Amino acid sequence: DAKPNDLESFWMPFTWNREFKRNPMLLASAKGMHYRSVDGRDILDGTAGLWCCNAGHRREKIVQAVQQTVEHLDFAPTFQLGHPLPFELASRVLQMLPPGYDHMFFCNSGSEAVDSALKIALAYHRVRGQAERTRLIGRERGYHGTGFGGISVGGIVKNRMFFGPLINGVDHLPHTHDLSRNAFTRGQPEHGAELADELERICTLHDPSTIAAVIVEPVAGSTGVLIPPQGYLQRLRDICDKHGILLIFDEVITGFGRLGTAFATDYFGVKPDLITCAKGLTNGVIPMGGVIAREGIYDAFTEWADNTGNTIELFHGYTYSGHPVAAAAGLATMEVYKEEGLFERCAELAPYWEDAVHSLKGTRHVIDLRNLGLIAGIELESRPGKVGARAYEAFRRCFDKGLLIRVTGDIIALSPPLIVEKGQIDEMFGTLQSVLNDLD
Ligand code: PMP
């Protein structure tokens, strides 16, 4: 039998985190803005779990919705049957978007949402007689989960190097960070349109009528908070329109209020054809992801017939698609967001947040600061030959001082629950500053 101290020997957590296995930091409970560690310490959550608990932890309404649903219905095979909750959740989420979106597909994670969106894009062109549109375009340093689709279009070489051959015919746009590197930019840097023109260059390398879709995170989160420069997303939209390419926004992080609007599509005023989401969809309580489709996309599948007039239905879906308990959690989460005006609250807090982020200017090791909505990227100078070591040490020291941050390489990412108070923002940056100043 496993003794508690041995537990970490059996579990295989995120593979990157070897240090965690040697020296695990374990959580026992959570409420509101805080986790409690197994040794009884309160930890201020600077990352909303992993960008998901946007309404804070263990919210009564969501917990109750989960409990009440599971008491009545534990599972419904949406393969053949259904139940009302995912219909309600889809309609609720669609109402939060600008007009023009009419269907939502449910899955269990961001990775599944991305794979589903890529499949929808490929199938959409096929059913419309454009079978040659198979190329996919992602972006360097894009993160789209760990499925084969996601790592193929994702722009992190080490995430895909052991797993080939992957999806064929993928190109990557240059990432959006160089323009603003070490610029301590507040909000969005300038000159995005020129950068987006790289898509035109790819279109001249390959016949644009062979390109199915472009997928980007509106703000790249997991690779260190890379904020698109002004005009970038709109120019991508324009080029996609010109060539009949579908545009996919991966809003797994930006969805559900992180920028102060329901989705980044509102924030940037750019409408993609497909939107992926997860995380904040259920406030992190139950795994759930989703793909939102622009009008006409779902209809293309249902109206499709081959040249002999037979309808051939494409097959896609998961055992747990539209799980009743997850859908109940999602509906309750949408209620909490609305009742407490959390997206508006995020927009109101954003200037205060921005000042707090930039108060770190001049702090030891800090070489760049980036922010948008309630997201921040704090880039540290790497120790020679040891990329990531300094930020990882900052992460552990912050945890010891009662603050949870997230690190990727030597970039610290912050994304607190949208219920964060100004005093807690001050506390976060105060702790971080003292940790960084004490760090070699
Ligand atoms: N896309 C984006 C933009 C993400 O940030 C993430 C997760 N951080 C994913 C996809 C993958 O989501 P999951 O881990 O739920 O599969």
TrEMBL record:
<comment type="similarity">
    <text>Belongs to the class-III pyridoxal-phosphate-dependent aminotransferase family.</text>
</comment>
<protein>
    <submittedName>
        <fullName>Aspartate aminotransferase family protein</fullName>
    </submittedName>
</protein>
<dbReference type="InterPro" id="IPR005814">
    <property type="entry name" value="Aminotrans_3"/>
</dbReference>
<dbReference type="Pfam" id="PF00202">
    <property type="entry name" value="Aminotran_3"/>
</dbReference>
<keyword id="KW-0032">Aminotransferase</keyword>
<keyword id="KW-0663">Pyridoxal phosphate</keyword>
<dbReference type="InterPro" id="IPR015422">
    <property type="entry name" value="PyrdxlP-dep_Trfase_small"/>
</dbReference>
<dbReference type="InterPro" id="IPR015424">
    <property type="entry name" value="PyrdxlP-dep_Trfase"/>
</dbReference>
<dbReference type="InterPro" id="IPR015421">
    <property type="entry name" value="PyrdxlP-dep_Trfase_major"/>
</dbReference>
<dbReference type="GO" id="GO:0008483">
    <property type="term" value="F:transaminase activity"/>
</dbReference>
<dbReference type="InterPro" id="IPR049704">
    <property type="entry name" value="Aminotrans_3_PPA_site"/>
</dbReference>
<keyword id="KW-0808">Transferase</keyword>
